[in-house]
Amino acid sequence: MNQIGEAAFQAAALDHTKAAWGKGVRLAAGNDTGHFPHGENVRQLELMHGTGVTLLDVLRAAILGGWEACGGDWGGRRFGLLRAGWAADLLAIQNDTRENTGAFRKFSLIMKDWSAVEDFRIVE
């Protein structure tokens, strides 16, 4: 896809996201729900918020939206909540995400399935 095609695609995707959210559709965000490479999906959250989606709904899309979109309990794996028996991927974020999506880029710890990830990089 050329740059003009990519820009038009992104603009249309953002318009559709805003329209769907405005009609009450629950959103999902994450590695497999957008066209962002693994590790760069924070950009998806920033763009989603830029359309007017509230930060609370952006957080919900990032934390529970994918699990719900995959059928929730029907998907065979429980994640999205901190509960015994559930998978847990966590970020220790240094600032309040309710105030600024830039906080998603400032974290000090990553955990994958309850284990700390030792070597991680922040993608700008």
UniProtKB/TrEMBL annotation:
SUPFAM superfamilies linked: Metallo-dependent hydrolases
Source organism of the structure: Pseudomassariella vexata
GO molecular function, one term: hydrolase activity, acting on carbon-nitrogen (but not peptide) bonds
UniProt-listed Gene3D superfamilies: Metal-dependent hydrolases (3.20.20.140), Urease, subunit C, domain 1 (2.30.40.10)
Listed name of the protein: Amidohydrolase-related domain-containing protein
Top-level taxon: Eukaryota
